[in-house]
Amino acid sequence: MTLLPICAIRSEFSASISQKNLVIQSETGSGKSTHLPLWAAEKGRVLVIEPRRIACIALAEYLALKSGTDLGTEIGYAIKLDSQYTESCKVVFVTPGIALKWFMEDKLATFQFIMIDEFHERRWDTDILLALLNKHKAHRLILTSATIESGPLAKYANADVLVAEGRQFTVAVSNIAAHSQQMPTDKDLEQRIIDTLQQTIQQGEVGDILVFLPGKKEITQCAQITTIKLPNVKVIPLFAGVSDTHRNQALTPSSQQRVIFATNVAETSLTIPNITLVIDSGLERRTHQRNGRTTLSLQAISKASREQRSGRAGRTQAGRAIRLFGEHAPLDSMTPPELQREELVEAVLAAASCGAKLRDMPLLESLPEKSLSAAEEKLKLMGAIDSELFITDYGLRLFPLPIDTLFSHMISVVEGKAEKETVVDVVAGLSVSNKLFSLSNSEMALDEFLRWNPKSCDVVTLVSIIRGHECYGLTIDDELRKEAQALAIQIRSELSLPDLEVSSRLKRDEVLQQLVKKLPELVYIRREKRREAFGNGKQEVVLGRHSHFLPIYEAAVVFNQFSLPGRGNKQTLTIGTALAPIELLWIIDSGLADCRIGECINDDQDLKIAHEYYYANRLLMIKYVELTEVDAIPAIVSQVMEGSILPSFKEKRMTEIAAWQLYCQLNGNKMSSVVTFESWFAAQLEELGITSLEDMMLFDETDFIFDGIPEWEISDFIKTYPQHIVLPDITLSVDYFPQSKRILLNYVKGQRKGDVKRWELPTWSGWRIQYKKASRNIDVK
């Protein structure tokens, strides 16, 4: 193999690795990922953990080729949905998720060496895996990074530090920015990228070009423009989930000049040949905690990522790096660890599945308590962990499924073979890394789509795509469909469900009705005024720009969502991305709606009472039903409140209740709870055993006495502290605030134009008196 800077530490590495854990620090392009696994394999079997699937495959293929063996014999890999390895492989490359599942099964007993490559990326699963390996103490550990501070990591892992100095090839760095401290920005990003590309290509003497962009959207836009404006170059997109064709094109030299538009997948591990120029936008999309939720947003990269990206230009020859931000831009030193900026449901379940409690694990940094507690509560509600935070049998069934824990739970709660198949296929479609399908904006395509899927239900769409049915009006990404189908096949196999080719009938309504009952947090109701927004009583989601949820539907099961930063510093905007319309009656029949007693009506001399059903503070339906004993007391209270029964009774008792509450405050007596007329009168009816309107006819208002201010005091007290004051041309209500000795007068009615005068009012000695006029409180002089 080629002599690289890492070779300078070979003898020291080989002498130390059998005795001590090692932290290897060397610049990007020094050969860490390709040389260290082979050196360690001379002493035992090696598991190499790479942060990304594309790196696992590329490194395994490269080392197998260089060693002259078939892939999967001496050197192999295992990622989600794909693997080529045997138990006799000396080196196996895996993603962190696969490593955690293998640790759960046998503590990685067949490996002597565990190498965690590119540890500086600080994924949650690599952090947990390192903590587990530290505790288990059965393997020699090799931790590599080009940028992380090696001292704290070495102390944590009880490791020695080996440093490979130097870079094989130099990289000249330049900046394009208005001033030296200009931060990365997405303003006119595509135009700035294209302008830089055109200028450098016109200058000549440039090999292949690697352009770092934050996401697939920007890559797609830049690739389309470049194909038109620079027809002589070969344009290649590179991101998570990219097709094997594009991946191979990026990793294989070409006689034609290439421009590779990539996300962070090209930042580490991968060697893309013939790159002589890197153009760095300085941007990435990453998660962070905002107002209690994990949001995905566009952010500036760290200084460590900046160096990693520039280093891509010096892997196989000398190169240049052009940064579209200032030389002294105040970037963070390192990207914050995922455990500090994401929800911890997956992390808590993974730790529990491996026999540990995440909150008790010694990690490099402490965990945010709010996120940790929220994750534990979610998993307890699922039944995945018990009250002591230990894994349950149900949790052990959830963890191995190669999907999000919440999706696994969704599959598990649904009963019935055909129903489970439906949810598996929906979840598989939602689990691929990018948008699986899109609907054309043309009227013809939309009409065609609605003839095929008249409810515009994403359950129907996703299941049809996964099962290979004709989907009218849609544009489907075939590569992503294959990935989703492979995932559906794997989950079906693990759950002993029928093969995809012989799927059961789609049971849309049956599945949705079960989910409404068993996962009520997925049930959302449309806002009455903001029609694009939906709420479930705890959270709000809005429809995505490309959603085709029809306006005739008022409720939905929301299968998937993601959060983005809102306009304010603490606001978040949660987008619903997969919705299925449901009937309002399903919410009521499932018991989710809150039933409130409403008005009584006379229907042909037959008295009925309104049952008002509310969900997420929205009235869904009103049913008028015959009175029962359960409804009698609310019905009588309602009739009295309306004045149909005992017309003047309510006002008298409300005055007495308000006076009593003020009386208690003035005398230093704390009331256990606030008394309302409705709660007091309902208690009186229950105490007297009144169970029908006929019973009520036997009583008058003198039978319902409020036991408050003593009878000999109440008249004088109400005169001293009236609740209403009638003055010439104005009527006022009075609010008392005993703690601050303040009285507030509120306008009720009247034509008076001038202010209220102190001499017109009762003698309230020692009280500050204010009059509320418009939105201001004015002192009464």
- CATH architecture of the domain at 171-339, by name, is 3-Layer(aba) Sandwich
Total of DSSP H or I helical runs spanning 4+ residues: 26
Number of strands: 31
The CATH superfamily title of the domain at 171-339: P-loop containing nucleotide triphosphate hydrolases
Strand order of the main beta sheet, please?
4-3-5-2-6-7-1-8
Helical residue percent band: 25-40%
Distance between the termini: 94 Å
CATH topology of the domain at 171-339: Rossmann fold
Residue stretches low in confidence (pLDDT < 50, at least 5 long) are none
Integer-rounded radius of gyration? 35 Å
Domain Helicase C-terminal: 188-362
Pfam families: DEAD, Helicase_C
Protein name: ATP-dependent helicase HrpA
Domain Helicase ATP-binding: 13-166
What's the short story on this structure?
The chain has 26 helices and 31 strands. By secondary structure, it is of the alpha/beta class.
Q: Layout of helices and strands, plus pairs?
A:
Elements: H1 10-16, E1 21-26, H2 32-41, E2 46-49, H3 53-67, E3 75-79, E4 82-84, E5 91-94, H4 96-106, E6 113-116, H5 124-136, E7 140-145, H6 150-157, E8 159-164, E9 171-175, H7 189-203, E10 208-212, H8 216-229, E11 234-238, H9 244-251, E12 258-262, E13 275-280, E14 283-290, E15 293-300, H10 303-311, E16 319-323, H11 338-341, H12 345-353, H13 369-382, H14 393-398, H15 405-413, H16 417-431, E17 437-439, H17 443-452, H18 458-466, E18 474-476, H19 478-494, H20 508-518, E19 523-526, E20 533-535, E21 540-543, E22 555-565, E23 572-581, H21 584-589, E24 594-603, E25 606-615, E26 618-626, H22 629-642, H23 649-666, H24 677-688, H25 693-696, H26 711-720, E27 724-727, E28 730-737, E29 742-749, E30 768-773, E31 776-779
Parallel strand pairs: 1-7, 1-8, 2-5, 2-6, 3-5, 6-7, 9-16, 10-12, 10-13, 11-12, 13-16, 21-23, 29-30
Antiparallel strand pairs: 3-4, 14-15, 17-18, 19-20, 19-22, 20-21, 22-23, 24-25, 25-26, 27-28, 28-29, 30-31
